[in-house]
Every structure is written in C-alpha cells, then in structure tokens.
C-alpha cells in the first residue's frame, strides 16, 4: 500500500508555512491577500504522497530523533513544491478547474469578471495570479529546507536534492509540451525519459533520499535507495498513463479515457505505434475527443495493438528491479521493507 501523510505535526508544518504567506500578504493589499487565500486552498487536499515518502524514508533509516523536526519541514517543502507544479501545470494546460472547483487561475478569472474585465482581461489576471502563486510556493519550499533544524552539511545536501528535483522536473515538463506539439511522434525512449524526468525525481527519488539523508543513511544506501525510488516513480507514472487511458471514472476523477481525449503522447501510445496497428492507432486517437463512443474505440485499438499488455509488463519489470534492490545489504532492513511495500502498492493500482 502507498503511504499517506496523516501525521498531525506535518499538517502543522504545512499550515505554518501557509500562515506565514498569508500574514505577509495581507500587508500588501487585498488582491495579494486573496492570492494567499487561493494558495492555501490549492495546498489542501490530495494524497500528500511526497511528504509521506519523506517521513517514511526517515523512519526507515533513522537511528535517533535528532532530525525529526527537520524531516517535518522538508516533508512540508515537498508538498508545497508539488502544489507549485500543479498550479503551474494548470496554466500550461489552460485549466481553470481542479477537483470540481475553480483553481487559482479560475478564482482570479472570476475576480476579474467581478471587477468588470472582459474575457481577455480575465484570462490575463488568472494566468498571472497562478504563475505568481506557483512562484511563491517554490520560494516557500526552498525556504523550509533552508531553515530546517539540521547541520549545515546536511542542509546543503538537502538543497541540492531540491534543486535537482526542480530542474529535472522542469526539463520533463518542457519535453512533454514539446512532444505534444511536434509533428513527429516521439519514440518510446523519448516518452519514457519524459515521464521519468517529469514525475519520478520530484515525486519519489528526491523525497525518499531527503528522508533517508536526515535519518542518517550513508552514501551507498542513498545511492541504492535513489535508484530504486526513481524506478518506483517511473512505474507510478506508467500506471497513471494506463489509468488515463483505461481507468474508471472513480480512478480518473473525470470521464473514462481523459488522456485519449486529449491525445497525449504517452509511452502507452508510443508502444501502440510500434505495432502493425500504428495507422489505426493514429486515426482512433485523432477522433477520441469527439465523445465516449470514440474513446471506447481508441481503447479497443490500443488494447488490440498489444500496447496495454506490453505496458503492464514494463511496469512489472520495473517493479521487480525495485524488489531486487530492496535486498541490497547497503539498505537498512526497514528501508528494504518500505521499497517492497511501495512496489506492491503501485502494482495494485494497475487498472
């Protein structure tokens, strides 16, 4: 089972960071105060996977409680980092709703409308507010790590992990957008690299290495754990791609097949295009946006191409490599147990 962050002390750490933003914001005008409130709403809800991975890795590797406070601060930082990426993603995707309610950009579009702005002005204010909200959250994530109660050497290594997570994720996001607009379809290798960079590093590798570092893991344990965590992150994203194509409404939170309707160029699609059915795949995906019947046809074509079966096999192969790494003698026993638990949880999400 994939862990969820339920520690009340973690919630206090997140709430404290958000409260600091609000306290500063109210001094800087009503619009900025409204932005701080929107940021707070954006940071609430969700599974809080990334902070859970920080604290779980810390618990799996620690020998004392010396860095317990720092672990909570770093866990909160990864949650705010995730929120920043989500807010910016919505701008990139031109989305104004999330979880059935207006997101940051959507709220400020409504604010602009209430102030008499037309459609163009509302879009301008909405996008500006969302970009600024993401920037503020990124700053606060760095601030939480920089202010963590730990020694200077550990703090420097934590900041390096956070820096790497942000840069690699930005590269993955840019590649994802570029893949979507290119006239040539990306190869399987390109889509896998994009999936890894966009998700695996900031969602799994960096949080787990950060928690383990604070727990006292040595360099070899951090290397083994980081490699395994990267594989977990890739498998997690590949399962998300399957859910986006074949998942139920309950799994996606939207109508079935949202990735097909948006014609996303995922590893699943790349696998389908490697088959003899490539032409049918392109035709079916080009029509998937037209409605549920076309979505079911696209699902059928992907299934008959063998892409779904090959994707499941790739996920299982990736998770088996994680399970093999979990037995590495460099890892504490509890860290190995955590890797196996996470692998089982990800495998259990396969639709």
In short:
The chain is mainly α and 351 residues long.
Radius of gyration: 21 Å
Oligomeric status: single chain
Number of helices: 16
How large a portion of the residues is in β-strands, by DSSP E? under 5%
How does the major sheet shape up?
2 strands, antiparallel
Describe it for me?
With 351 residues, this protein is mostly helical. It is 76% helix and 1% strand. The protein is built from 16 helices and two strands. A hairpin with a 2-residue loop joins strand 1 (97-98) and strand 2. The longest helix is centred in the middle third of the chain and has 30 residues, at 152-181. The two termini are 15 Å apart. The mean pLDDT is 94.
Write the layout of secondary structure elements.
Blueprint: H1 8-25, H2 30-42, H3 49-61, H4 68-92, E1 97-98, E2 101-102, H5 104-114, H6 119-146, H7 152-181, H8 188-215, H9 219-246, H10 249-252, H11 258-261, H12 267-273, H13 278-287, H14 292-304, H15 307-325, H16 333-347
Antiparallel strand pairs: 1-2
GO molecular function, one term: prenyltransferase activity
Protein name: Polyprenyl synthetase family protein
Family: Belongs to the FPP/GGPP synthase family.
